[in-house]
Design brief:
heterodimer, A: 199 residues, Rossmann fold, four-stranded antiparallel sheet, 10 strands, B: 267 residues, mainly alpha, 2 domains, 76% helix
Chain lengths: 199, 267
């Protein structure tokens, strides 16, 4: 059984396609802006209406409630949302040692959300997503606002997480070097479909 | 005490004042003169018509006729709630939510008042039914409209926060909880303020009317108290219903936020 399996899956911008991600596998996704990468991730997380069916391990999307599915299939949007004042309000459980892996001080959970820099937001949003222990990660340009050093840290953290938890990862990135570094396959959206970027 | 009857001349004097205001508006190009005149004209026509209809109903007080008028008032109020929304729901929901909420609150509260509290003979007597229902609908309407508008506007503005919570696996109720609470609160504030100011700052319209018509002031005060309490209850329950149905409608069966169910603002 695959970590994530899509069958005849379609969105308003993508014709029906099949896709399989093994547990622990990372596939990158790219495509021109407006081609529907973010909308595809949103549809897989069942935030937008879509066609076809999706499975996470043995669980079919339609067999569980939307929230239960989204706890399994975690989406990290390009711009993270913060609905409460303090960072810690957004975490149900937090492994404080994980903060250090992303170069964040232990005290950062007490920070006010509106004073975070875009890079801090992005790193904290990643930790917030992982704290829910999803079985599949959908990452929408997770390192877009980070500098070189923090990109390395984030990539390492995600890779270690993927290997220890056998998590399937679908990673949207434009950077060809990053595609080669983090993914075993690379897909690109072309003419309303997914094609392999390199063979 | 006998009511001093107003003549058409008396009313035209008051109308002249509104005309003067409209002139001022055109002079200062406030851009509201036309709307003012149309609204004033509507007041004159609608109230005259209501007066005639009630006059007819006082003579011919068949329960079905009273029910028909009550239903008509309800539907107009439902339409008015929708018209006050910047982003009403598409389809039947647009009018349905307001109408249904007013039906379950205003209608039922008025029925309780008529049958249990006032106990007129017969209980549906026009003299009590229509004025009472009118007061209820008119006042709960604003509360419901404000609450619903507040709900949809904030859901629209806080789309990212709501969806951020959904992405974390929160349920729709968790994701909308604060917005819903604030919407309900905003709908209740006007009636709370009105109750707090009643008799001290403002002399409520119905009590004024009864006193003008020659009722003993203390009797008029008791009726006004009854009305205020009923309006507060009706507004609260009506706004709760509207906010509950509206917030549920913002999400679909997969608990996705569905802002595409809201119509974009007209301007």
């Amino acid at each position: 059984m695959a970590g994530l399996r899509l069958k005849a899956f379609s969105t308003p911008l993508l014709d029906p396609f099949d896709l399989e991600l093994e547990p622990g596998e990372c596939i990158t996704l790219s495509g021109p802006s407006g081609s529907g990468k973010s909308r595809l991730l949103r549809a897989i997380a069942d935030l937008d209406p879509h066609g076809g069916e999706a499975w996470c391990d043995d669980t079919a999307q339609h067999n569980v409630s939307g929230p239960a599915w989204r706890r399994k299939v975690g989406l990290l949007p390009a711009e993270s949302a913060w609905w409460s004042e303090q960072v810690s309000d957004h975490f149900t459980r937090l492994d404080k040692t994980a903060l250090a892996h992303l170069n964040l001080p232990t005290k950062s959970t007490e920070w006010q959300v509106n004073r975070l820099s875009s890079g801090e937001r992005q790193r904290l949003a990643l930790l917030r997503l992982l704290s829910g222990q999803p079985q599949v990660l959908l990452l929408d340009e997770p390192t877009a606002n980070l500098d070189k050093g923090n990109i390395d840290l984030a990539e390492t953290l995600i890779e270690e997480w993927r290997k220890t938890h056998d998590t399937a990862v679908l990673w949207v990135t434009h950077d060809p070097d990053q595609q080669r570094r983090v993914g075993s396959h690379s897909l690109v959206i072309r003419n309303r479909g997914l094609v392999s970027a390199w063979n | 005490m006998e009511l001093i009857r107003l003549t058409a001349f008396d009313l035209s004097l008051a109308a002249l004042l509104v005309l003067a205001l409209a002139l001022l508006s055109f002079q200062l190009s406030l851009g509201i003169g036309q709307r003012l005149l149309i609204a004033a004209l509507r007041t004159v026509m609608q109230l005259s018509l209501l007066g005639l209809v009630l006059k007819f109903l006082f003579v011919q007080s068949h329960p079905m006729l009273i029910a028909a008028l009550a239903l008509f008032m309800l539907i107009v109020a439902g339409y008015e709630v929708m018209a006050r929304q910047q982003r009403p729901f598409f389809g039947y929901w647009g009018m349905g939510i307001g109408t249904l909420s007013m039906f379950i609150s205003s209608f039922s509260v008025t029925l309780i008042a008529l049958s249990v509290i006032i106990q007129a003979e017969p209980w549906y007597s026009v003299q009590y039914t229509i004025p009472l229902l009118g007061m209820m609908l008119g006042n709960t309407m604003s509360g419901i409209a404000i609450a619903l508008d507040n709900l949809t506007q904030h859901a629209w503005q806080q789309q990212r926060e709501i969806e951020g919570r959904l992405m974390m696996g929160h349920t729709w109720e968790e994701a909308i909880r604060e917005i819903r609470r604030n919407a309900l609160r905003s709908g209740l504030i006007p009636i709370i303020n009105a109750m707090a100011a009643a008799g001290v700052v403002s002399l409520p319209g119905m009590m004024t009317g009864q006193i003008l018509a020659g009722s003993p002031p203390f009797e008029a005060a008791k009726y006004q108290i009854l009305i205020m309490l009923l309006i507060a209850a009706g507004t609260g329950f009506g706004a709760s219903a509207a906010v509950w149905i509206g917030s549920r409608r913002l999400f679909d069966e997969r608990e996705r936020l569905r802002l595409d169910r809201l119509r974009p603002p007209r301007n």
